[in-house]
Amino acid sequence: MIINGMRKTGSFFLSKSQFTRGLQCHKSLWLFKNRRELQQKPDASLQARFDAGNRVGILAQQLFPGGTSLEYKSGISKNIQRTQELIASGIETIYEATFRHDSVLAMVDILRKGKNGWEMYEVKSTTETKDIFINDTAIQYYIAKGTGLDITRVFLVHLNNQYTRRGELDLQELFTVDNVTELTLDRQADIPQQLGDMRKSLEGGEPSIDIGPYCTAPYECDFKSYCWQNIPEYSIFDIANLRSNRKFALYYGGILHLQDIPADFTLSDAMQIQVEAELTGRKFIHTRNIREFLSKISEPIGFMDFETFMEPVPSFDYQRPYQQIPFQYSLHISEDGNLAHHEFLGEPGIDPRQAFIEKLLEDTSSCRTILVYNQAFEITRLQEIAKNFPGFAEGVESIIARIVDLMEPFRNKDYYVREMCGSHSIKHVLPAMIPDLSYNNLAIADGEMAMLSYAGLSRMDDGDEKKKICQDLLVYCKLDTLAMVRIWEKLANITQPKGQLSLF
Ligand code: SF4
């Protein structure tokens, strides 16, 4: 509703998440309260992370079993009243205890009666305690304490990424419990002022706040598409590896376009190549370096790519929280102008690693060089397999010894054209080098989608839909290695004297 040119805000009540949103940016809080239609909806990957976080929260309750759980669907007012009744009844543990104080609402993941008073536990699905989480515990403490509850200790519960599952889940090992009481208390004095500032900002019209580093940190703001709408599609914000504060120094100085960057603004060599290529269209191709790189490669050449999934709570033995588990590979083998293809896709719901490595060892046995794109990823996965399944260690070592990283010439800017937009990821390099080969029309078009699709397979019954997703996964991964073949061909052609080489 607009009154006298001012938008009247709907409500000054805040939830814990609205408070932390307001700490990041008052405009974000205002838009959330008044222009929710501008908010970007979470994509499938963010939604999957939310869902995983909820599952971790429910599992952590079992650290303190036997408590009473309050269901969100019962309604806030009812849960606030029920929390007070449970506390008065002498209960020991409540999950999602709900409080309101100073018009701010909080739900405490686990509230437990300790020896000297009540204890609050905030559960996070991360593998460490981060400073920003103290904002959550601080506002929860402020609210619960404000209702008169005697809280003596505050804890953050997070996953322990050093825990390796063997047999049944060991919750005491899976979770780490950090005492954050002191840090939480240290922030109490600031909260009344912070809430006052947020409410003042909510009383007026849309805050006049320009974009800034706070648009992406500590969280990616879900109003970016609105606030960043006037930023050109390609701007100083696209200079790869330029630190955020330096980008904003340019922006606040009125510079948005690459051509306006002052001559005395220091850029690394790689950044200068990106800027010059964009402004002039010049191609940067360092033939001698590319030739040197290619000299490390011998036929038969394997072009290899892995797909992985990860999950906060390990499902299998010898798996850690968030460990990347390879479930699929594609392998093209090139020799004397002939191209053969091999692939593997793990059975959903079963630990894929043993079958994966058995087939991979067999399929790569003839390869003298194994090309991957970004070798750190594949090598780390192989080393983890060797650690978790020592019987394969020797074979794994032999694969690693033959790996060469096809990303090298692109990371070193030995081949750079403007279409790469400062990136050396294969998703940018491929369309720039081989425009006719594209991921655009694939049902599964990136690693994140592949991971989510595979994770969903274990919950599906056998049938056409499951078959189609498996097929989509195979098509996607195969394109990744075919892309590598075509990129290698192109590099080889560039370095040959004209008319001497024609590959495939
Ligand atoms: S995009 Fe940036 S300026 Fe806009 S609401 Fe979010 S944090 Fe604030």
Word description of this protein:
The chain is α/β, with parallel strands linked by helices and 504 residues long. The chain folds into 3 domains: 14-195, Lambda Exonuclease, Chain A, CATH 3.90.320; 210-253, no CATH class; 289-495, Nucleotidyltransferase, domain 5. Helix content is 41%, strand content 17%. The chain is built from 19 helices and 16 strands. It has helices at residues 16-24, 26-34, 44-60, 76-88, 133-146, 171-174, 181-186, 191-203, 224-227, 244-252, 269-280, 287-294, 353-363, 375-388, 393-401, 408-411, 426-433, 447-457, 464-495; strands at residues 2-3, 6-7, 14-15, 68-69, 93-101, 104-113, 118-123, 151-159, 175-179, 284-285, 301-309, 325-335, 338-345, 369-372, 403-405, 415-416. Strands 3, 4, 5, 6, 7, 8 and 9 form a 7-stranded mixed beta sheet that branches. Strands 13-12-11-14-15 form a 5-stranded mixed beta sheet, with helices on both faces. A hairpin with a 2-residue loop joins strand 1 (2-3) and strand 2 (6-7). The termini are far apart. The structure holds iron/sulfur cluster. Iron/sulfur cluster binds next to helix 2 and helix 9.
